[in-house]
Amino acid sequence: MSEELKQMAELIAANIINCTKEVLTTDEAARYLGVSKSYLYKLTMQQKIPHYKPLGKMCYFNRQELEQWLQINRIATGDEISQKAQSYCMKKGGQQ
């Protein structure tokens, strides 16, 4: 029982550290993004995700940059598209 509690405490501590760290290792970044390490490596090789290689070998990731990267290419909701279409039609209608 105490071994289980110890493992649980270590897991909680690791999660707290991972949530507060600014710079993440490849393992931490993959876990944070919910992707496999191999996929993360693929993204870095294709220069599709921001990363750092201070010594030219190991990759590091800035948490804020990862969050910004996750939020690119936002898909508008149906309501937002409808509102834009309605606004566009109203503008065009007034110009004729």
Characteristics:
96 residues; mainly alpha; Multidrug-efflux Transporter Regulator, Chain: A, Domain 2; 65% helix; elongated
Detailed description of the structure:
- The chain is mostly helical and 96 residues long.
- The protein has a single domain (2-95), classed as Orthogonal Bundle (Multidrug-efflux Transporter Regulator, Chain: A, Domain 2).
- It is 65% helix and 6% strand.
- A two-stranded antiparallel sheet has the order 1-2.
- The longest helix is centred in the first third of the chain and has 19 residues, at 2-20.
- The chain is elongated, with a radius of gyration of 21 Å.
- The mean pLDDT is 88.
Estimated share of beta-strand residues? 5-15%
- Overall shape: elongated
Class based on secondary structure composition and strand pairing: mainly alpha
**Distance N terminus to C terminus?**
77 Å
Mind telling me the C-alpha Rg? 21 Å
The number of strands is 2
Strand order of the largest sheet: 1-2
Order of helices and strands: HEHHEHH
User: How large is the count of helical segments?
Assistant: 5
CATH level-two architecture: Orthogonal Bundle
